[in-house]
Amino acid sequence: MYTTLISVAQLRALQAEGAPLLVFDCTSDLMNPPLGPQQYREAHIPRAVFADLNEHLSDKTGADAASGGRHPLPSREKLAIWLSSVGLANDMQAVVYDRNGANYCGRLWWMLKWAGHDAVAVLDGGLQAWQAAGGAVASGEEPSHFQTNFTLGPPLRRLATTAEVLAGLGRHTIVDARATPRFKGEVEPLDPVAGHIPGALNRPFQGNLGPDGRFKAAEQLRAEYEQLLAGRDPASVVHHCGSGVSAVPNLIAMELAGLGQAALYAGSWSEWCADPARPVEKG
Fold first, then answer.
1. Orientation angle between helical segments 248-256 and 105-114, nearest 10 degrees
2. Can you tell me the distance from the alpha carbon of 88 to that of 20, in angstroms, rounded to the nearest whole number?
């Protein structure tokens, strides 16, 4: 069972042995939402299911959404219905990938953990690594997978709420994955307020990957996060970003580094700044 990362070679081995497996393509583009589905149709790993950030990995209409912000988490129950509809069973290994530096597939990795499904791994290096290794790609839409009955288990990762983050200011270690100019409040292309949660640390999510697009070695990640935390307890960390998507590579990186399972504030900055009564820092 693969629970954090899986290499192209390991994925190919699972495919060759006919292991129970479902691959998800999570390609997306925040600034141009139609681009993700278009890129999937142009090229994807054969038999991969498309997981649309806005349609499948968010719930922008439901009253039972599990978080606020620009990409509200669907409820666990709604997630289970979708997973069943695309053919994920509880005994399957799930593999998630994108072509965006693990920015979007991390969202589904975390959601599956939150649904109680531990056997989910990010394809290290994404579609680029698959193609560089000579992996075949398919185009167009994929035929429907069999309907399954995915059953929720106890959550394996912790979802932090706005109320918890607010009450924990000064105790929690907030790690913000947004680009530094956004963190400092110099620019804000997506949300109505610029700045960051008071006391937050800045770790842009791209810093977890090496030049080859794969996650850095565990030892390097550990050194970098220990420098960032500067003696703070890793167990106190709550990760966030703009809308609960790009924070997840930081969460994965800390796990790879052996620093434990931190919480995710999925509502993130977009939910935090929606209420002018909540404090904001700049700089």
1. 70
2. 9
Looking at the DSSP assignment, which residues form a beta bridge with residue 159?
A: 264
Cα 159 from chain centre: 13
Summarised one tens digit per residue, pLDDT across range 133-172 is 999 999 999 987 789 999 999 999 999 999 999 999 999 9
> Which contiguous run of DSSP H or E holds residue 14?
helix 8-17
As a whole number of angstroms, the distance between CA 81 and CA 154 comes to: 16
Tokens of 193: 């307020």
What would the two tokens of residue 4 be?
């954090």
Q: Kindly list the strands in the beta sheet with 49-50, ordered across the sheet, starting from the edge strand earlier in the chain.
A: 5-6, 120-123, 93-97, 21-25, 49-50
DSSP H or E stretch at residue 5: strand 5-6
E strand intervals along 233-276: 237-240, 263-264
- Decide if 39 contacts 58 (C-beta within 8 A): no
Q: Within a 10 A sphere around the Cβ of 263, how many other Cβ atoms? A: 21
Amino acid at 4: T
Query: What is residue 146's predicted lDDT score, i.e. its pLDDT?
Result: 84
Side-chain half-sphere of 105: how many Cα atoms within 13 Å? 28
**Cα separation of 265 and 175, whole Å?**
10
Domains for the chain: give ranges and CATH numbers.
5-132 (3.40.250.10), 162-272 (3.40.250.10)
- What is the spatial distance between Cα 163 and Cα 99, in angstroms, rounded to a whole number? 34
Query: Over the chain, what is the mean pLDDT?
Result: 96
**Helices 218-229 and 248-256, interaxial angle, to 10°?**
110
Average pLDDT over residues 112-125: 98
Active-site amino acid positions: 241
Q: How far apart are CA 272 and CA 192, in angstroms?
A: 11
